[in-house]
Amino acid sequence: MKMPIGPGLVLLAAMGASPSSAAIVIDQNAPTNNAYISTLRLPGRAQSFTPAASNSAGAGIFLKEGVGSGSSDITISLWTALPNASGTQLAAATVSVSGPGVWADVFWSPVAVTVGATYYLDFASTNGDLGIAGDEFNGYAGGNVFAAVGYLAFPDFDYTFRTYTDDQYVAAVPEPASLALFGLGLIGLGALRRRAD
C-alpha cells in the first residue's frame, strides 16, 4: 500500500529532518569514587569534559555516601565556557534525589556539541550539606574540577560524573543539495504564479 506524500512531508524531507526515537547512552564516564571532592554548599562547582558524540542529552554526578543527609533538588547545566568566563548555557535540568550515595542524573532535549571541544557542567543544589564524590588522581584526562568562588581550577581532580548522548539524534541541518533543490522549486512556483497572472 502506497501512502500519499503531502507537502509537509516533502518540506521535512527537503530540509533533511527525519523521525527518530531516543536511545540515550553514556558518552563520557568518570566513575571513580575515591574521595569526597566538594560540598554542594560551595559556589562555583563545575567539571570540564570533552564529548566524543555530536550531541549532549544529559549528565549526572554521584553524591558521596556518608556526606550530609536529606533530599535535594540537583540542577546540572551545560555550558560552552565557565559561567564567569562569558560561557553560554546550552541546557539545564533538575532531578530530585533522596540523599547521599546516589547518582543525580538529569536529561534534556539533545543539543549539538562539537566533538573534542571542551564543555562545562555546572552543579547546584537545594541542600548544601550533600557532597560530590570524585577522583583525586586525575582519572579522567578530558577535563578537571572547578570549585569555590571564581571557579578555581583543580587539574588533578575530577568529580564522579557522566554525560549522556542520544545516539539516534540527527540534527535538522539541511544539506546544500537539498537546499538548492528546494530553492529551485520555490523559483519554479514563483514563475508559474507570475505566468498565471
Brief summary of the model shown:
The protein is 15% helix and 39% strand.
Q: How would you characterize this protein structure?
A:
With 197 residues, the protein is mainly beta. 15% of the residues lie in helices and 39% in strands. The protein contains 2 helices and 13 strands. The strands form 3 sheets. A 6-stranded antiparallel β-sheet has the order 6-5-8-3-10-11, with no helix packed on it. β10 and β11 (152-154) form a beta hairpin. It is elongated.
What key attributes describe this structure?
13 strands, mainly beta, disordered N terminus, single chain, 39% strand, 197 residues
Ordered list of secondary-structure elements with their pairings:
Elements: H1 7-14, E1 24-30, E2 35-39, E3 46-49, E4 55-62, E5 72-79, E6 89-97, E7 103-112, E8 119-125, E9 131-135, E10 145-147, E11 152-154, E12 158-159, E13 161-166, H2 176-196
Antiparallel strand pairs: 1-13, 2-9, 3-8, 3-10, 4-7, 4-13, 5-6, 5-8, 9-12, 10-11
Count of individual helical segments:
2
The order of strands across the largest sheet is 6-5-8-3-10-11
What is the typical, i.e. mean, pLDDT? Answer: 86
Number of DSSP strands?
13
**DSSP helix fraction:** 10-25%
Largest sheet: 6 strands, antiparallel
